[in-house]
Amino acid sequence: MRKFIALLLVFGLFTIDAMAQAEPTGFQILKEKFIEGDWRFMSLVLVCLILGLAFCIERIITLNVATTNTDALLAKIDENLKEGNLEGAKEVCKSTPGPTASILYEGLKNAGDGPEAVEKAVVSYGSVQMGLLEKGLVWIALFIAIAPMLGFMGTVIGMIQAFDRIQAVGDLSPSVVAGGIKVALLTTVFGLIVAIILQIFYNYIISKVDSIVGKMEEASIALVEVMDSNNVFK
User: Fold this and answer.
1) Same structural domain, 80 and 107
2) What CA–CA distance (Å, rounded) separates 133 from 211?
3) What are the pLDDT digits (tens) for 78-92?
4) Residues 59, 168: one domain?
5) Residue 215: how many CB atoms within 10 A of its CB?
6) Could you tell me if residue 210 is inside a domain?
7) Measured between alpha carbons, how far is 223 from 221 in angstroms, rounded to an integer?
8) Are residues 6 and 62 in the same domain?
9) Which residue in 55, 77, 87, 144 is deepest, having the highest Cβ count within 10 Å?
10) Domain tally for the chain?
11) If 0-12 CB within 10 Å is exposed, 13-18 middle and 19+ buried, where does residue 133 land?
12) Which of 53, 95, 59, 52 has its CA nearest to residue 77?
């Protein structure tokens, strides 16, 4: 995971450099707003975005790899069980990537102990696989929460700076408070933008996990029926 984040950081730097060369006007504006928003807080918000996207991309890749065609997998298992080839059915599961195949393999391993043992093994191992699918989501949720908080902190500090200038000058004028208010607004905007981006990815990942879990449960029920119809328990 650390190597993946490091690669993403390097890729981000190259992308920013390319943007600077390809679209200097837009990049310069973004750079100016970033600096005007107080780089100390804006840098922390940027780190939240980079790390959050790193976890999101890692989860999306992992979940796409974990997606299995359960109907085709069950059809292969059924074909082997009809021939009385329990070991062949296990090999089909072992050679198929994804949590669904792993759960079905655990069920087939306990075929000799009856349907109750199969169901128990499937439920127990299903909990383990579900935990692996949700790995890293807590960090994404953390960055979603922290990004706007950092923005709001910049807002508070910007307002404090504005009031400090008013106190120092002794006069309430737009030119005196504009700088502090500008910092406050920019940090808030960037923090909210980061949170919105990560929230979209987070919801997509959650829906993907729910879809995989649903397929796992359907495949588990279907496995017991397939094994019973092929007299595996007798």
Assistant:
1) yes
2) 11
3) 888 888 888 888 888
4) yes
5) 19
6) no
7) 5
8) yes
9) 77
10) 2
11) buried
12) 95
